[in-house]
């Protein structure tokens, strides 16, 4: 009578979990430093050194871009209009918000609410109040930039 012994130390899921835990314990291959982020890459609100408080007050700008066009990409323009409304509501000056987007969905024949763009099914109009200035991005030269920058939104034609 021959006995076969099958030697099985651990099941594959258990072995995988132990390997992953071991990898995490040794640091997961990351460089071993206390601060994982580069010291020069911080948000403006993360000022912790005395040299960061030099008395300079900057101007906050927002550049919003929706590069797609067509009613099939409705959400891209709707999200940009919604972001514009949120930035304005949070106190960013209108003249410091620059928006590049096509303007082809608000009055699109497929839009069930002509002239209105919503961000979610029960949402209100996020298109209203967003200023529009026709602008052809491909025809930029130095003169165009000087005249276009004061505008708050540039609708790609």
Automatic annotation (TrEMBL):
It comes from the Eukaryota. Residues 1-31 form the signal peptide. The keyword Metal-binding does not apply. One of its GO terms (molecular function) is cysteine-type endopeptidase activity. This is Vacuolar-processing enzyme. Belongs to the peptidase C13 family. Keywords: Signal. GO terms for biological process: proteolysis involved in protein catabolic process; vacuolar protein processing. GO terms for cellular component: vacuole. InterPro entries: Peptidase_C13 (IPR001096). The keyword rRNA processing does not apply. PANTHER family: HEMOGLOBINASE FAMILY MEMBER, LEGUMAIN. It holds the Pfam family Peptidase_C13.
